[in-house]
Design a protein that fits this description.
Structural class: alpha/beta
Mean pLDDT: 91
Radius of gyration: 15 Å
CATH superfamily: Methylesterase CheB, C-terminal domain
Distance between the termini: 27 Å
CATH class: Alpha Beta
Largest sheet: 7 strands, parallel
Helix content: 25-40%
Strand content: 15-25%
Low-confidence stretches: 1-5
Length: 206
C-alpha cells in the first residue's frame, strides 16, 4: 500500500456519490502503465473511461487498435460531438484537445498547446470536472511534464475522486509529483491498486 492508511477500498468508503465517468492522463511511460490498468476489465464494464496520452501530433495514432486487441471493452478514438457512452474506452486523437461538454458529449479543439501538449490532460480533467462534478474520477499516471496537475486539482475541488500513480513506481515521476505539490491530498496508488480501484468504482456504479 502506497499511503500508510489509505487503500482503494477505504477511499471509496469515504465517498457517497457514485462515480459516473473515469478520466486518465499519462505521458512518458503511459502506454505500459495503461496496459497494466485496462486489460482485465470485464466485458460489460458500466463506466466510460476517457484517456489522454501525449503522442506526437504528426502521425496517426494506433492506440485504439492496440488496446482493443487486449480488451473485452469497446475501444475507440473519441470523435467530435460524440456522446460519451458507458462501457467504452476513448483515446484522445493526436493533435487535438479533447474536452467534455455539459451534455456529456466530446468536443475537439485545435487551440494552442497547454503545457506544451495537445491533447492536454489539464483541459480534459477541467472540462470533465465541470461536466460531472463529484461524479468524476480523475487519475494521473507517469509523465515527464506538469500537464494534468491543474486539471486534477480542479477535479478535486469539484468533489471528484482524484489519485496519482505513486511517484516511486512511475517510470517518470515528474507528472504525479507536480500534481502532489499543487494539491497534496490526492491519493497515491500503485498501478495494481489503481486497477483494483477501477474495478471497485464500477461495482459501486448506480
Amino acid at each position: 500500500m502506497t499511503t500508510a492508511t489509505l487503500t482503494a477500498t477505504s477511499l471509496l468508503a469515504r465517498r457517497d456519490p457514485p462515480v459516473q465517468a473515469i478520466c486518465i492522463g499519462a505521458s512518458a511511460g503511459g502506454v505500459e502503465a495503461l496496459l497494466a490498468l485496462l486489460p482485465g476489465l470485464r466485458a460489460g464494464y458500466r463506466l466510460p473511461i476517457v484517456v489522454v496520452l501525449h503522442l506526437p501530433d504528426d502521425r496517426e495514432s494506433v492506440l485504439a487498435e492496440v488496446f482493443q486487441h487486449h480488451m473485452a471493452l469497446d475501444v475507440r478514438e473519441a470523435r467530435d460531438k460524440e456522446p460519451v457512452s458507458c462501457g467504452t474506452v476513448y483515446f484522445a486523437p493526436p493533435g487535438y484537445h479533447l474536452l467534455v461538454e455539459q451534455d456529456h458529449s466530446f468536443s475537439l479543439s485545435c487551440d494552442p498547446a497547454v503545457n506544451h501538449s495537445r491533447p492536454s490532460i489539464d483541459l480534459l480533467f477541467t472540462s470533465a470536472a465541470d461536466a460531472w462534478g463529484s461524479g468524476l474520477a480523475a487519475l494521473l499516471l507517469t509523465g515527464a511534464n506538469e500537464d494534468g496537475a491543474e486539471g486534477l486539482r480542479a477535479a478535486a475541488r469539484a468533489g471528484g475522486l482524484t489519485a496519482v500513480q505513486a511517484p516511486a513506481e512511475a517510470r517518470v515521476s515528474t507528472m504525479p509529483e507536480a500534481a502532489l505539490r499543487l494539491h497534496p491530498s490526492h491519493a497515491q496508488f500503485t498501478l495494481a491498486e489503481i486497477h483494483q480501484l477501477l474495478q471497485d468504482l464500477e461495482r459501486r456504479h448506480a
